[in-house]
Structures are given as C-alpha cells and as structure tokens.
Specification:
Number of domains: 1
Structural class: alpha/beta
Order of helices and strands: EHEHEHEHEHHEHHHE
CATH architecture: 3-Layer(aba) Sandwich
Length: 249
C-alpha cells in the first residue's frame, strides 16, 4: 500500500503482527479504522497477507521487518511509522518465542535467545513507545498466564514473561501525566502455531480441558481484549489482564 504522511485515524504498531495473536490483533484494529504497521521478523509472505487482511477489514496497513531486540531496528520501525501515518497512538508488543524444555535440560544459548527476544525485546520496544506514543495512546504488552500456572517445561518462557509484567507495571507509573495507559494481557493456552508446535494431540486435548470453558483460547479472544485496552479502556492502567478461560494455578 502507498505510504501517506498525513492521516487522522489512530495508528498502531503491532509487533509479531504477521501471525497468531499479533495478526488477529492487527486485523481487529483495522476493523476499527486504525492504520496498522505489521511488524515481523522474517516471513514476508505472512506479513504481506496480514497487511491485506487489515485492509480488507477496513484499515490501512504496511509491513515493516524488524528485530524487536535491536534498538536501531526498532527506532527505524517507529521512524517509518511516523513517516507513513504521521505518528503512533498504540503499540501492541506481541512478538515472542517459546522453546520448551525442563530447566535441567535447556541449552543456555536457547535461554539467552528467549531472554533476548521476549524480555530485551519488550524493553526496547517499550522504550521507543514511551518516547513516541502520542498523548491519549496505549502501550500493550503480551505476557502469559504461565507466570501463574507454573507448567513444567516453561521455566525460561515464564521467567521472560515475568519480566514483561514488571516492565509493564513500572512503565505505567513512569508515564504519569502523559495520558498514556500501559497494560499487559497474559493469555492462557491459545490456538496458535506457537502453542501447537511440538505438542502431541493428547497433550493439546488435556490442556484444552483444563479451564471451566473446556476449550483453548482463540486468537480473536485475546485480540478483543487488546482492542479494548487500546481504545475504550482508558481507566485500566498498570494492570496485567489474565485471559485464560478460568484456568487456575
């Protein structure tokens, strides 16, 4: 799509916007008339398809490739967003990785990659968001209910997401006086490629039966909450919203 420098609609950056929860969020915001920057790490075809979905939903969109843990790449991402759409109102940080292994067996190089992508990535994206989101805007990080559920095999992932929640709560207070809300959504098991990867059908069925609603979350379930925090929910600030269908720790 042709990039325009002037627009009156709200503008959102969605990291991890080419697939899963990020993609569904980008489309949901597009349905509300947002201009959306779909941020992706590698798969151009998925990113282009997400842009088309946003446009079909009624929004404007471009795709920008960026490593969320690279401060130069993220600064460029925000530059391109401002050049294309005139500013930034909402940042949804949904990018993340989830390699699984018992703590005793996890390769420390893999652990370092999880921390770099999930935790440093959140810090880098939120740093630019804190500097550039316009007053009246929102910053929404994606955490995980695994910070509470303590499921074996998820120690590195849950540790990184615990850090995401700490960053979220502190940044909300650091932005006092800016009229910018900062919240995190912490999904439970959600039917995305990231969740299904490496799991047997038996395990998937067992996890899906855990919540009282007896199903996996769907990406649109989480996207609806993110949309609420992005716009209508101006009095929710500095919170972690656990969206897991009632799963208990």
């Amino acid at each position: 799509m042709t990039e325009n420098a002037s627009t009156t609609e709200r503008v959102a950056i969605v990291t991890g916007g080419s697939r899963g929860i990020g993609r569904e969020t980008a489309v949901r915001l597009g349905r509300e008339g947002y201009a959306v920057v779909v941020t992706y790490s590698g798969n151009t075809a998925d990113a282009d398809a997400a842009v088309k979905e946003v446009e079909q939903a009624g929004g404007r969109a471009i795709a920008v490739k960026a490593d969320v843990a690279d401060e130069t790449a993220v600064a460029t991402l925000f530059d391109r967003t401002e050049e294309a759409f005139g500013g930034v109102d909402v940042v949804v940080h949904a990018a993340g990785i989830m390699p699984l292994a018992p703590l005793a067996d996890l390769d420390l190089a893999v652990f370092d990659q999880v921390i770099r992508t999930n935790l440093r990535g959140t810090f880098v994206v939120d740093q630019q968001a804190a500097r550039r989101v316009r007053n009246g805007g929102a910053i929404i990080n994606v955490s995980s209910s695994l910070t509470l559920l303590a499921r074996p095999g998820y120690s590195a992932y849950a540790a990184s997401k615990g850090g995401v929640e700490a960053i979220t709560l502190i940044l909300a207070r650091e932005l006092r006086g800016r009229d910018i809300t900062v919240n995190a959504v912490a999904p439970g098991p959600t039917a995305t490629a990231l969740f299904f990867e490496g799991k047997s059908q038996e395990l998937i069925d067992r996890i899906a039966a855990e919540p009282p609603l007896e199903r996996l979350g769907q990406p649109e379930d989480i996207a609806e909450i993110i949309h609420f925090l992005a716009g209508p929910a101006r009095w929710i600030n500095g919170q972690v919203i656990y969206a897991n269908g009632g799963s208990a720790a």
